[in-house]
Structures are given as structure tokens and as C-alpha cells.
Amino acid sequence: MERGLTGRYETTIVGSEVVRAFVPRPLPPHPPIELAGRLQQLLESAVLSLGRLDGFSTHLPDDALFICSYVRKEAVLSAQIEGTQSSLADLLLYELEEAPGVPLDDVQEVSNYVAAIHHGLRRLREDFPLSNRLVSETHRVLLSGGRGHAKTPGEFRRTQNWIGGTRPGTAVFVPPPHMVLPDCMTAFEQFLHAEDDGLPVLLRAGLAHVQFETIHPFLDGNGRLGRLLITLLLCHAGILREPLLYLSLYFKQHRSDYYALLNHVRLTGDWEEWLAFFLEGVRQTAEGAFSTGHRLARLIREDRVRVQATSGRRARSVVRVHQALAKRVLSSLSATSRDAGLSFSATSSAMDFLVTQGIAQEITGRRRNRVFVYDQCLSILNEGTEQP
Hints:
The chain has about 400 residues and is mainly alpha-helical. The chain has 15 helices and five strands. Helix 1 runs parallel beside helix 11, helix 2 (about 65-80) crosses helix 4 and helix 4 packs parallel to helix 8. It starts with 6 loop residues before the first strand and ends in a 6-residue tail after the last helix.
């Protein structure tokens, strides 16, 4: 349904240029979302896929493996959308402080994203409300280092920003002037908390994402935080118990459609078209996470059975090292020793056995300070993060 422009243009002066900045109307849309036909079917499919994924997470033999892995994969993908070049391996090496030669600004941004996810979820689990304050806190963590650290982390902007182009006058899109930002964000927070508008949580998440990207309340990091907000909202609402759904891969794969639909909504008010795209993304992403989780679980289970059957008297230590490597798929011997709770020599012997079995692979070629990768696990997790 086309409702017309979803806000108003406000003329401001930025430098010497006259700029038309877009101020969105508060949500929810009016007239209300037409939840019928195709959109209803997409919603039901997305909810079903999310339910399967959430149910799967409760039966994992070690949910820390999947949560840690998915958080890091999402961090890489979300940063790639913004133009960073870091890989999942770069991030894992950086976390080991074993990352010579990787793009440090890029990998710092990815590492900050991991920290921001953990911060937001921890605060929600402490019963802190999903609020502007939490959004600002999470943004502060997101921009605590890397290229964005000088752009007032955690503070709503006090100047005009823009998207695309070299200046506001040539921009693809100009968000609201900073003078009206407090009103926009107050209305946004009220929408997040609303319980009387009859909107299903998934639709609220889809609407909130567009509104946040339209307001663009910070000088930097809005895209990453806007994507993270989807997961925080779903976890806060109890739709997901663990943060296993991230849409960055879907947005990356459909980047041109994603940006076109954001602009289409603003100009036409056709929220249904955007929500259809969003719900299909939720369905595909949930099914992909479910499938990947099963593949990882099967691989790890089969490898564990194999090492138990072939490692003889070392079975106990080999299994513990294998378990530690499954949680941290790229790891040094010292880190694995800590994770497994074994001596360095026992860890080294067990890791060498995993290498002979084709499970682990040493990647440095050094005799000391060796780093090992659970190659098949990393290959599965890397799917979709490859740079073109």
C-alpha cells in the first residue's frame, strides 16, 4: 500500500548550502500495515523458521560454540557492508593477539561489534529496558576504537550528517537535522515499547530498522547498530533465547534491493513491500543458521567419536583439546591450553594427534608460537563472508 511520503522535508543551511533534510513521522504507519495474503504467509513462514532455530539452540551439546561463532560471523559481515576488508580469520587472530599484517583499523571495528553485541545482550538480561540509553551505550562500545573513535561514541550527533555524496548538497539522502533529533528518538523509543498497536514483534523489528536508519542519530556506526538492533529487539521480546539470527548476510547478498527499498519506503510509504523483503530475509537467515548449526554439530560429533576411538590412552586430553578447538576454531597452543584446562605439553601432544587425523592444521609454519585451525569448521563458518 502506498501511503505517500513518510515524513516531511525540512530546509536547513549546512555551510553555504541549502539542504533538504528528511524528518520521518513517528511509527506505526497510518493507515495500519495490511497484514493479509502474501505478507501474512511470509510472517507465518518467518515465525516458523525462527521457532525451529530457537528450539535447536536449546538442544545444542555446547551452545557456546554456535553463539560465539555466529556473533563473530555477523560482526565480519556487518562490517563488510560498511566497506571493511577483514575476514573471520583476521578477527580470530586479532583476538589471539597473533595478527601481524591484518588491517588493524578494520579488525578493531569488527572486534568492537562483537563487544557491542555482548554488551547489549548482557544489559537486556539484567532487565535493562530496550531504550535510547541502551542504544547509546551499545554505540559507545561499537565505536570505542578503530576509525570511528573520534566521532562522539554514545552521543547523538550535534551536526548534520548525510548518506552518499561528498557533502550534504550532493548526498543521496540527508537525515533529520540535529535540532529535531531528540523528538525523533523519543518517538522511536516509544514505538519500541508500544504494546497496544497489535503489531507482531517481527513487523516491529522490520519497521524499527528502517526508522533507525532514516533518523541516523549518530555520526558513525548507524548501519551496524541498526542491524544489531534487530537481534536485540527479538531477544528482548523472547522470540529468540540466544543471538543466532543476523541479517547482514542477507542484506549483503541483496545490497542494491536493500538500499532501494529503504528509499522506496520513505518516498511512497509502501511498508508492505519492505516488510515482505525483511520477512523473507528472516526466513532465509533462520533456515540457513539452522542448517549450518546442524552441519557443525554433525562434524564435531563425528570427529569427537573418531578421536575417542583412535587416541588410546590420550583420549581424555585429545577430546578436551578437540572441544576447545571447536569453541575457538583458530587458536594458539597457549590459548587452547587455557581453554582445555591442560598443561602446555599435554595440549601440544593432543593437538599434534588432531593434525595427524586431518582435523587440525597448523598455519604459521613456525616451531614456536604455533597457531592451529579447525579447518572444516572454519570453512563452514566462512560461507558468505568471502570478499569478492
